[in-house]
């Protein structure tokens, strides 16, 4: 294991502890990455987005304002998790039509 991988893993563990203890926060994980977004200010106007790629030990961090934090979270759920799991998200015309069909069937 490279020294950077071990250092990054320890940093991510520390950040996950902080995220877990700082609501509202979110921690997502798959087989090859862990993602978290949590507030870093008491007023909720500053947030930290962090991701750790397990195979190579890469860590990425972004300090965000509250508006950008929600935009990055939506992107992560739609693009990141959406590539791992079959989430009920509109990703194409076919899934859009399924959503439309569900609404229409409610009034039939």
Structural commentary:
The chain is α+β, with helices and mostly antiparallel strands. The protein has one domain. The protein has three helices and four strands. Strands 1-2-3-4 form a four-stranded antiparallel beta sheet. The chain is globular. The mean pLDDT is 91.
Placed side by side, the strands forming the largest sheet appear as 1-2-3-4
Helix count, DSSP H or I runs of 4 or more residues:
3
Taken as a percent bin, the fraction of beta residues is: 25-35%
Shape: globular
For the biggest sheet, the summary is: 4 strands, antiparallel
Count of separate structural domains: 1
Structural class: alpha+beta
Helix-residue proportion: 40-55%
Task: Provide the gyration radius in Å.
Answer: 17 Å
**Overall pLDDT confidence:** 91
SSE series: HEEEEHH
End-to-end CA span: 60 Å
Low-confidence stretches: none
* DSSP summary, beta strand count: 4
Set down the secondary structure blueprint.
Elements: H1 3-20, E1 26-29, E2 33-39, E3 46-53, E4 58-65, H2 66-80, H3 93-105
Antiparallel strand pairs: 1-2, 2-3, 3-4
Quick recap of the structure?
With 108 residues, this protein is an alpha+beta fold.
State the main characteristics:
single chain, 108 residues, alpha+beta, four-stranded antiparallel sheet, 3 helices
């Amino acid at each position: 294991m490279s020294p950077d991988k071990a250092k990054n893993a320890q940093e991510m563990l520390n950040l996950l502890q902080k995220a877990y203890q700082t609501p509202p926060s979110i921690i997502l994980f798959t087989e090859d990455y862990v993602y978290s977004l949590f507030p870093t200010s008491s007023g909720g106007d500053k947030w930290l987005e962090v991701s750790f790629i397990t195979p190579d030990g890469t860590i990425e961090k972004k300090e965000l304002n509250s508006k950008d934090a929600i935009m990055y979270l939506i992107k992560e759920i739609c693009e990141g998790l959406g590539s791992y799991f079959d989430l009920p998200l509109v990703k194409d015309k076919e899934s859009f039509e399924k959503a439309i069909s569900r609404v229409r069937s409610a009034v039939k």
